[in-house]
Amino acid sequence: MIKGDNSFVPSVPLRIGVRGAGLDAMALLLSESGTVRGDGDVVFHGAPVHPSGTVRLTEAGGTAWLDVGLTTIEDRITRVLVVGSTAHGTIRDVAGLSVEAFAPDGTSVARYDVTDGAAETAMVLAELYRRSGGWKFRAVGQGYANGLAGLATDHGVDVADPVAPVVPVAPVAFVPAPPAPAFALPPMPPVPPAVPVAPAVPVAPAAPGPLPYGPGWSYGPVFAPYTQIGRDNDVITVSGLPPGPVVVQLDIQGDGYTGLVVLDRRNKEKDYLVNSTEDDFRGRVLATVPDKGPLRLRLEAEGPWRLEVSPLAAAGRLTEEAVAYRGPEVLLHTGGVADLAIHYRGDDNLIVNVYELAGHDDHTALPRDENLVNEIGKRRETVPLPQGPLVVQFEAADGPWKARLKRV
Length: 408
Description:
Blueprint: E1 6-9, E2 13-19, E3 23-30, E4 42-43, E5 55-60, E6 63-69, E7 79-86, E8 98-102, E9 108-113, E10 122-131, E11 134-144, H1 147-154, E12 202-203, E13 226-231, E14 234-238, E15 244-252, E16 258-263, E17 269-276, E18 282-289, E19 295-300, E20 304-311, E21 316-317, E22 323-326, E23 329-333, E24 338-344, E25 349-356, E26 370-376, E27 379-385, E28 390-397, E29 400-407
Parallel strand pairs: 21-23
Antiparallel strand pairs: 1-11, 2-6, 2-8, 3-4, 3-7, 5-6, 7-10, 8-9, 10-11, 12-13, 13-20, 14-19, 15-18, 15-20, 16-17, 16-19, 22-29, 23-28, 24-27, 24-29, 25-26, 25-28
């Protein structure tokens, strides 16, 4: 993986290896607000076990190991940050810096080699985050020139607590409490030489091949996701995609206004996709790649951002299990007639639209949408859904919400 990439990992207990000479590792467990709930959500050398027992920090063979029990993490925890810091020197000086996730049988499921460290002394190396009922691993590589204190403050940690001065201690042997299985230490493959990667550039789509999208969805083309990272306002051009509806995921770290607009062939604003004042905006919206020419997007943002364009087939599926989200979202319904139960905890507009695809054979455009919900403020709502296949678009949803299907 390179900076900005993400992929699903199995929802099993994972062992995260952080390699790098002179690097101290820690984990921050974040709630929906993007902050820790208290000191207990910081796992470091001075407090190597989370109170729940689901995250543990040990060292072996010059590698820091974070054992993360994805199957037992509290529902209120939505992200786990893997953080590295240096007591002497900078991230640039750390040789062979990498983060790798292993399944219980020792199989590597994700790896990120950090090759663009600079003068910062602390960095969010990677994160595990909930997505569509499972977990994803993201290669983050976000450095903090103001060190661990700045990183901690951004995520709600009281820097007066003993977090910033990380003092190594002798490793302590822990026996995992049931029902979490014991981890077998995975083999230590050699670290390949670092390959420089230019930061904040588009990431070309992967080579053609099988793509990990679930069965039961045949509408629209399937292609490898396109990813781009950057900072502040920008115009983004995505070339080479087949025409038709796509899912655009936008993640921004920062406050202020966020706007995302599709530009037409005359470079005029055409379709508004995002119009939000939420801090640290995260969400997925629908866009349409034109028949001729690239998809062009104008982004207004303050702070670092990441944008990914994926096919509809990559969207999450609605099921009878309640799944937590925050911000706009695109979901798929592939089953029969059902009711959709929504619990919205935001203060602003909640707008939900549905696109019925039965009998619609033009894969270059979606049919006319039908509005299901258009309300303001916190509410519980149950609405009927026709038989799939459907695209269910939460067009506006500033704030946390949950959704699940109910049998009819």
